Amino acid sequence: MTLCVALLGGSFDPVHNGHVALATLFATLLEPDQLRILPAGSPWQKSGLQARDADRIAMLRLAFAGAAATHPVTLDLQEIERGTPTYTIDTLRSVRAELGPDASIVFLMGSDQLQQLDSWREWRQLFELAHIGVAARPGFSMADAALPAAVASELTMRRGSLAQLRNTPSGRAYLAETLDVDISATQIRAALQRGEKANSLISPVVLDYIQQHNLYEI
């Protein structure tokens, strides 16, 4: 069987239940040999991160501790260690060089990111390096009419099955309609700043960490 690695990148500022649900969904669907979590170092499309790198890493370890019991989970810190603006294309090139030409690499994202995929650097070249697995998110349609025309056209050519993603190196896209979690880190930070606990949005152990370290305060 082909080595399969699923990658979930993001700012994780903070990591929340939506991140874990997306990763768990594709870990269940694909049964990858490894699930890698890739915290961004300096995401070029965002104005800045509120939590320190060390805090985001600590929160990720706590949030994915449960998932690690059933799926092999690894934190990949290369984007933080790079120390420059984070571009997915660079990360995928690095992972492909590490794993070789035959491994299956599946880059995971929510449908909100899919709607702006054509704004990413060298976005079409992403498919030369990996498959893309997309999970539905309320309010962000994956229908062709809701996507930029170039993205919709690319996806039409590249739709693949889970078996194709699992057993071939790159070039396919799979849209999972079964995830229905509407959570954002912005929403969580706003709730915490209002003094709300956001228990339904974030893992209790992560929330405890945030409170103990006085993160996201006004």
From TrEMBL:
The keyword ATP-binding applies. It comes from the Bacteria. Transmembrane segments: none annotated. Pathway: Cofactor biosynthesis; NAD(+) biosynthesis; deamido-NAD(+) from nicotinate D-ribonucleotide: step 1/1. The keyword NAD applies. GO terms for molecular function: ATP binding; nicotinate-nucleotide adenylyltransferase activity. GO terms for biological process: NAD+ biosynthetic process. It catalyses: nicotinate beta-D-ribonucleotide + ATP + H(+) = deamido-NAD(+) + diphosphate. Residues 7-190 form the Cytidyltransferase-like domain. It is an enzyme of class 2 (transferase). Keywords: ATP-binding, NAD, Nucleotide-binding, Nucleotidyltransferase, Pyridine nucleotide biosynthesis, Transferase. Its EC number is 2.7.7.18. Belongs to the NadD family. Catalyzes the reversible adenylation of nicotinate mononucleotide (NaMN) to nicotinic acid adenine dinucleotide (NaAD). HAMAP family: NaMN_adenylyltr. This is Probable nicotinate-nucleotide adenylyltransferase. It comes from Massilia atriviolacea.
